[in-house]
Amino acid sequence: MALHSAVKGKLISVIGDEDTCVGFLLGGVGEMNKNRHPNFMVVDKNTAISEIEDCFKRFLKRDDIDIILINQNIAEIIRHVVDSHSSPLPAILEIPSKDHPYDSAKDSILRRARGMFNPDDMA
Amino acid sequence: MAATVEHLDQICTTLDKLTLDALTLMQEEIDLKINAENAMIGGETHLAKTRYILGHNSVSNLQLPTENSPEFNALTVVHTNDDEYGVKQFDLESHKPDNETYLNPSKWFGYLVPHDLQFAQNLYRQALQWLVQAANVQNRLRENCLQIKQLKELKQELSSN
């Protein structure tokens, strides 16, 4: 614990719908840094796919972020970018949202793991 | 020839163990995410109750900080360490709000907020704990799959000789 106080921890970022962002920011993950860059993005029906992609790539590049929480339905929209990330840091965690329950069949890592056992799923 | 067969047997035994581990880890990750989902559903219900009390737009992204908001620090952060196998593992750390460096996020929604908002806050904190555990399991699973892949390649190489 003493070690924790001395070293500044890394951030958890959120890309999600309104309730997901409000909820997790209420939980204390939100931060606005000196350059006025937030570690969250609220996605609604008017948000362009390119905006989501850019934000996701920006979070991947930031060295102060170690975990990215992203709603699974949003991860589906930018699946090609999510799947191309293979490094353990930052860890990308696909989470459910209000209108989209968690589906393990769509999860990037679990799909990859299942592919180890069933070659048909690799296609 | 006998040495190669022995090597192949060892690889197959290790592959069996790793495969069982992978299945266990997959189940563990799904369970943790379902726990997080249940906490989030509870949080969403309390957010809805807060909206009912305070008004529809009183708990929305309009209250969240924007680029023009003053700088503030995250209350909850993670510390990343390597475990005994060199796999990245996260450890959650929460700071107490002190109204200077660390602000209580519930203040964004007003100073006299309903209890439901605090219930929602607690449930989302619980969800975070489940999700950090899920991230740890996910990293172990990723490492496990990498080892399976490498051993399969080695097995194929030995079998072809």
CA gyration radius of chain B, whole angstroms:
24 Å
CATH superfamily of chain A: ATPase, V1 complex, subunit F
Q: Tally of extended strands of chain A?
A: 4
- The coarse overall form of chain B would be elongated
Family (chain A): Belongs to the V-ATPase F subunit family.
Keywords (chain A): Hydrogen ion transport, Ion transport, Transport
Pfam family, one (chain A): ATP-synt_F
GO cellular component, one term (chain A): proton-transporting V-type ATPase, V1 domain
Quick structural gist:
The complex is a heterodimer of chains A (123) and B (161). Chain A has helices at 2-6, 18-26, 49-61, 72-77, 79-84, 108-115, and strands spanning 11-16, 40-42, 65-71, 91-95. Chain A is α/β, with parallel strands linked by helices and 123 residues long.
Please give a structural write-up:
Chain A has helices at residues 2-6, 18-26, 49-61, 72-77, 79-84, 108-115, and strands at 11-16, 40-42, 65-71, 91-95. Chain A has 123 residues and is of the alpha/beta class. Chain A has a single domain, classed as ATPase, V1 complex, subunit F (Rossmann fold). A 4-stranded parallel β-sheet of chain A has the order 2-1-3-4, sandwiched between helices. In chain A, strand 1, helix 2 (18-26) and strand 2 (40-42) form a beta-alpha-beta unit. The mean pLDDT of chain A is 86. In chain B, helix 1 (2-54) runs antiparallel to helix 2 (115-160). The model of chain B has no long low-confidence stretch (mean pLDDT 88). With 161 residues, chain B is mostly helical. Chain B has a two-stranded antiparallel sheet with strand order 1-2. Chain B is elongated. Chain B is 61% helix and 9% strand. Chain B has a single domain (1-54, 72-160), classed as Helix Hairpins, CATH 1.10.287. The interface between A and B is large, with 50 and 65 residues.
